[in-house]
Amino acid sequence: MPGVLPDGEPVPADGTLPAGVQLGRHGFGVYVHVPFCASRCGYCDFNTYTAAEASQEGYLDAMLEELRLAAKVITPDRVDTVFVGGGTPTLLPAGDLARILDEVDRTWGLAPGAEVTTEANPESVTPESLRALRRAGFTRISLGMQSAAPNVLAVLDRRHTAGRAPQAAAEAREAGFEHVNLDLIYGTPGETADDFALSLDTVIRAGVDHVSAYALIVEDGTRMAARMRRGELPYPSDDVAADRYLAADRTLGEHGFDWYEVSNWATDPAGRCRHNLLYWTGGDWWGLGPGAHSHVGGVRWWNVKHPAAYARRLADGISPGHARERLTPAEQHMEDVMLRVRLAGGLPLESLDAAGRAGAARALGDGLLEPGAYRSGRVVLTLRGRLLADAVVRDLLP
Ligand SMILES: C[S@@+](CC[C@H](N)C(=O)[O-])C[C@H]1O[C@@H](n2cnc3c(N)ncnc32)[C@H](O)[C@@H]1O
Ligand code: SF4
User: Fold this and answer.
1) Nearest alpha carbon, ligand 1 atom 16
2) How many CB atoms lie within 10 A of CB 77?
3) Is 117 within 8 Å of 65 (Cβ atoms)?
4) Distance CA 51, CA 302 (A)
5) Minimal CA–CA distance to 360: which of 391, 330, 331?
6) How many CB atoms lie within 10 A of CB 315?
7) Of 1, 46, 222, which is best to mutate to test ligand 2, by the most ligand atoms within 8 angstroms of its C-beta?
8) Cβ-based neighbours of 238, under 8 Å, separated by 6 or more
9) What are phi and psi of 287, to 5 degrees?
10) Least enclosed by CB within 10 Å: which of 44, 87, 196, 237?
11) In what order do the strands lie in the sheet with 299-303?
12) Tens-digit pLDDT profile for residues 286-328
């Protein structure tokens, strides 16, 4: 089961924001969390439940009730991006996902050309469901592939075969999805350099326009963490993860994918995930659904996690917000630096204080920042800098 939520100040029953808090000008997105999976992958600590742990009944009504509550709290000009994530959104019938999108559009209005993404597990879509999603207005699909090597998929407890993810990507293209992402995880115990090369080769052949590749994180409380503690699986190695990252960047780069965030590559700027870019550049979003996080004008709040507790709150006419916090200007700056430094566009040197600029000069000397960008006043990571992004961030902040 997912872990406990942090505390903060309480969210009022009607969900209203503190006085004076307003939507910013960096765009508005809607996130919808669908907290259900057919089974739990051993490495995953997302807020998601199997059928034995929570029922899907009542989810859609509760989530739409939260949307009605949200409409009384904020009135954005338009919705630039919608991202339905999970869990496994595609465990819901395509008709339910279409209804969610329709209601978001009726409530706040989708901007012309809005990006509308759903995550999906490769085994939970079909050519028919993909066509239905496309017809409903979804423009982008993000498939959890993780690996093309059967031995790696087995360690990760994935349900699909190695071939299913590229096949689902091809079906998505045939259904008319212009933007298709495949997620990879690297550094899984037992994964060889050849296994990862096969995964990279598979995503390239799949004809997608976006790839996300994440180093395996061993999350506390997961089955995988327990297996490692018992000595049944070795812990991942930082050196191996660095080698895999270099291989990913080299191979993807050779095939027309450019990095735009440390873990994300796209063949074209139009293929970049605008919803995630909104998160990374200080945009506002309302997160609907159990455990979803929201951010408006420097206020962050997060919903109760369990679908039953979430539905109960909304049935009682109460905001599902568990707690909230108001970021101080110093915290906002810290978050802005942490997120922007990971982007290929980087951040302006002048946004740093004197100590941060001194840190940037040291990072430049260590070969972690691009000299050309630095000369024109920007902090942009080199390839080596991307491998050490967390250390660079520590140097740029007080
Ligand atoms: C919500 S999941 C994606 C959708 C879908 N549920 C699936 O797994 O196919 C988002 C992505 O996060 C990544 N992820 C989840 N847990 C991770 C972990 N412990 N370490 C690294 N990546 C992880 C995976 O690549 C996964 O595809
Ligand atoms: S299918 Fe995705 S969300 Fe569900 S448990 Fe696996 S990684 Fe987590």
Assistant:
1) 44
2) 12
3) no
4) 23
5) 391
6) 12
7) 46
8) none
9) -100, 115
10) 237
11) 258-261, 264-266, 210-215, 179-186, 140-146, 110-120, 79-86, 28-34, 284-288, 293-296, 299-303, 321-326
12) 999 999 999 999 999 999 999 999 999 999 999 999 999 999 9
